[in-house]
Structures are given as structure tokens and as C-alpha cells.
Amino acid sequence: MGFRMGIVGLPNVGKSTLFNALTRTAAAQAENFPFCTIEPNVGEVAVPDGRLERLAAIAKSRQVIPTRMTFVDIAGLVRGASKGEGLGNQFLANIREVDAIAHVLRCFVDDDVAHVEGAIDPVSDAETIETELMLADLENIDKRLAGLSRKLRGGDAEAVAQDRLLRAAKASLEAGKPARSVEVSEEDARPWAMLQLLTAKPVLYVCNVEEGSAATGNALSQRVAEMAAREGAGHVVISARIEEEIAQLDPEEAEAFLEEMGLDEPGLNRMIRAGYDLLGLRTYFTVGPKEARAWTIPAGTRAPQAAGVIHGDFERGFIRAETISFEDYIACGGEQGAKEAGKMRVEGKNYEVADGDVLHFLFNA
Questions:
Q1: How many CB atoms are located within 10 Å of the residue 71 CB?
Q2: Cα–Cα dist 345/117, whole Å
Q3: What confidence tens digit (pLDDT) does each residue in 181-220 have?
Q4: Beta bridge pairs of residue 72
């Protein structure tokens, strides 16, 4: 299981440049004019995880298969998008299909790149986009509430629950707060997700800074960090220009370039980690001579469901999971060493898979 992150923002903030860099493709034009992205571009990238290479080296795996993450580059929204301004409506629909929103904010000054609002103010830009998404949600909620009226009169239990959740979201939006600020019980989590409200999506603010500020950020990105802290949202500082350059280099050149810029790693790594934290995702591994492979699961996933990510038969016929932590696998020099040291555990159906677990599933065919 991977996840889909939609890249949104006003025109000319660096969305498509970032997308091109992250996916190492030229699928999205990065031009200095609004609406250069006419259809949402979709790209998959391998999730970098140094643990996977270390496991593969010990097991002498012939193939290394990382888990993958999908980015969706959604065209620039503008003020009035909820009413169809610019190319608003079709792109609001695209946002409904992603798991989280990476909201790219312009935190650099460049007189050669026009700003659609006329001034560089990332907090104001964020508020513009959030307002449009909130207005779109309110319009959507009103339509759905009207459509539920007949089912409510008939006492339909599902309609009653949906009506209650929609009204909770509407109250929050009318108070000027996004739908994600609504406290949702575990029992309501699934029906709430089914509403697909735009402002219920987790948000990661991506501060696109000039190259010289990539390592430390700047005054504009600091304002975004403060805003994210107030909202309980994620944020990451990145230079789309640097990421674009790194994408064109081989690994050795990229490492030297990052060192020159005072960076420990590419922005992609930081962005994925922030996305994982945002959605509460975890990684487990399967390792052997044939392949070493990473798999993504939500935090709290139990062993049978984790097995089901590989194949449905694994979940249906689950017997047990032989489990070694990543640290123990490395320290013991592999599976056999972990067994001899008593570090391999046998876990049952109620085991919650931990990040970094190396798993071998036993199941009935």
C-alpha cells in the first residue's frame, strides 16, 4: 500500500517544478504563466529507505523493491475556484481522490516570476486556497443534505449517521474552521472518510524557498511553520530548484551537490517522511535471497491485514508471522543469526506490526 498526495497551490509557486523533480519526469510543464497544467499529472516514485539496502546486502537479495508513493500534480487554484474561476471546478474534483494535500507555498522572492496575487505572502496564499476548499465543501454538503431528506423521513440508519456527520462538518466550516478540525470517533472514522470532504484531508505545507535558504529556511517559511504549528499540520522546507537539479544528476554527483548546498539529503526524503507522519504510515519488510521488499501499512495494522497487502490469500489463510525487528536483523547478521540469538518472535493474529519489522508469513493456501 502506498498513498496518493495531491500537490496544490496558487499558480507560479513551483508546484510543477517540484513534481517534475520528484518524479524525474517532464510530464508537467513548468512555465511562468497560470494554468500550465491542464490535466492532473500522476507520477510514482520509489520511497527511499536506507534500511532496505542494508537488509538486502545481508540477505544477498538479487532484487531490491522499495515501496512506492504517488504524487498528483493538480493545476493552480485561484481565488474564486469554488465558483469555477480559472480551472477551479475540475481540479477540486481531483483533490477528492487523494489521501493528503501537499500545499506548496511560495516562500521566495523573484521579480522574474509573476505572483497571481501580486504580493509574496505564503500565509495569505494558504488562506486563499483553504477558503476556496471550504466554500466548495459547504456547497457540496448543502447538496448532500438536501438529497438525504427522503431517506431521513424513512428512518434509514445510514442516512441518519451521514446527516449527523455532514452537519458537524458544516458547523465547523461555518465557524471558519476546516472539516479536519472536527473530532471524529473511531466508530465514525470510516463513514467520515466516505464523505470525501476536501478540507478533511490532512495538509502538509511545503515551503518552496530560494536555493540559499534550503538548509535553514527563511523568514517567510518561518511564518508558515508557525501557522502549521497552530493548525497541527505538517510542514517541510524545500527548494524546488535544487530538487530539479538533483533529479538530473547521478548519485555521486547528487551527493556532492547536496554537501555543497549544506543539505544531508534530498527534499524528497523529507517530504515523504513528513507525509508518512501525516498519515500515520509504517513500513515493514520481507527479505530473502530472491528479493528484499518494503511494504507500506497504516499504523496499528495487525499481522493478518499486513499479510493481505502482499496477497489476499495471505490474510484469509493467516496462521502466524515470524518476526524480527530491523535492529535485531542487522545486529545478528540476518535471519539465521536472529533465530540462534532468540530474536525471532512468533506473532499471532492480534499482533500490531511495528515500523521496520522483517516478517515471514505462514498461511493456509
A1: 25
A2: 58
A3: 999 998 999 999 999 999 999 999 999 999 999 999 999 9
A4: 6, 42
Longest distance between any two alpha carbons in the chain, whole Å: 68
Query: How far from each other are the two terminal CA atoms of the chain, in whole angstroms?
Result: 22
Q: How confident is the model at residue 118, as a pLDDT?
A: 64
pLDDT value, residue 112:
65
pTM above 0.85, yes or no: no
Per cent of the chain over pLDDT 90 is: 56
- All 3 cell numbers of residue 144? 448532500
Check if the beta carbon of residue 209 is closer than 8 Å to that of residue 218: yes
HEC letters along 183-209: CCCCCCHHHHHHCCCHHHCCEEEEEEC
Which residues, in sequence order, are CB contacts of 227 under 8 Å at separation 6+?
A: 123, 126, 205, 233
Is 322 within 8 Å of 344 (Cβ atoms)?
Answer: yes
Helix, strand, or coil (residue 288): coil
> Which contacts of 168-172 are long-range, i.e. CB under 8 A and separated by 24 or more positions?
169/137, 169/141, 169/195, 169/197, 169/200, 170/138, 170/141, 170/142, 170/145
